[in-house]
Each structure stands twice: as structure tokens, then as C-alpha cells.
Amino acid sequence: MGHKYSEHYTMRTYDYNQEGEIRLTSVMNALQDISTRHFNSVIRPSDVRNTGLWVIVEWQVSFENSLKAVEAIEVVTEPIYFRKFIAYRTYEFFSEKSILLGRAVSKWAYLDIENRRSKTIPESFSKLFGVENSTIKPKREPISTTGLTEVFSQSFTSYDSDVDINRHVNNVVYVRWAVDAYKKASLKAQGLETLKEVTVVYRKEVMAHETVVATVFKDPSQDHMVTTIKNELGEICVELAFKAKA
User: Fold this and answer.
1) Is the pTM higher than 0.85?
2) Do 113 and 100 meet the contact criterion of CB atoms below 8 Å apart?
3) Which among 6, 99, 231, 243 would be 20 to 30 A from 156, CA to CA?
């Protein structure tokens, strides 16, 4: 495994939903932020000439305890895999009372800054982050709508404020769209009121001023839903799977 890194995040009033729980998007913003902070704390211009560009490919976030009335979270991250142009990180996040709130795994692609094509991760990164070459990458279940019933759809338009430094819609914005559609669908379908696990797979970028459609599919047993976000050409940009607590 790699070297661990931690950060403390104080929650603000805008980080809570109407039920008084920390928003999923706020948790994921913290996870994304600590990933960048850790990388920047280790990699200096003198370490490599061109550090390339990291782009998030997948998120898997699971929850162990309630996020209600939690005032701050402590996030611990650890890089666990560097191979070719793909990297993985793990996370644990705790309440101010040191209660484990959840875990996460992220998958990243390393791209060339100029042409945005896959770029081999420098060998020096493994040593700097303490990642062994023999590590095995995490596995996840594929997201599929097979056997699911479409229950709801909603269109969203991306704005300039949704675009980040990578010049496309920030990865957490897609989650916000999906959560909005998920909340309406769950009420409509009378299921999935409390999240246990969220998986996000990014497939295609969305730019500013584009319209997308989020379509929610429900499992007949009501233990999970899948949301697909498609662009105007009907291409899948993001897939999200939501699992409910028992």
C-alpha cells in the first residue's frame, strides 16, 4: 500500500440537506479535494518536469454510519495502485468523535496536458507515494440496467459555473444531477430513501451549455436504482448506481 495522508473538513450550513445530513456532494468534494492536496504535497516541480493531468474515472462510496448532525469529517486517503496510466486511491472518513462514517475508492486516468491522451505515470510516483508495483487493482460490479424498470427522467442544462479547471463539467455536478433525479424517483417509486453505497462511472465529458437527460431505473425489489446521464446525442456520459440500506 502507499503513504497515508489526512485532512480535516469543517462542514458549513450549505453542506447539509433538508434532513440535516451532510450532502453526498459535500462528501465527494472533500474526497476530491484531499486527492489533489495529497498529490500536490508530494509531487514538486523538481520531481518531474511535466506532471500531466489527473482525471477521475470512477467513484465507489459506501456509508457505515449516519451523516446526520456531524459537524466535521476527518478524511484519510491512501494511493494503492499505479500502473500504466491508471491509479487507484482508498479513503476512510470519520466524524469529529472518531466514528467511521464511510469508505471510498477512486479510479483516475493520467493524461497528457497538451493533447489529453493517456500518459504513462512516471515511475518515480510509486516511490514517492510508497506504492508497490505488485499491488492488485480493486474490482467493482458492472453497472447495468438489465432487468430494471425506468421510473423517472429529468433534463438538466450545464452552466459556466458547473465547469472546472479541466474545462468540462465537474465530476460532482453529475452526482448532484443524479441525486436530484434519484430523490424524485425514490419518492415516486416509494423506495430507496437512505443511501448505503454509490458507484459512479464517468464515460464522456459534458461541456458548458449542454443539455443532458438523467434517467432513473429501479430494481423490482427496491434495493437499488441506476441512473444514466446522456447527452443530446444519446451517448451515456455517466452511470450511477445507488444502493439502499437494509
Assistant:
1) yes
2) no
3) 243
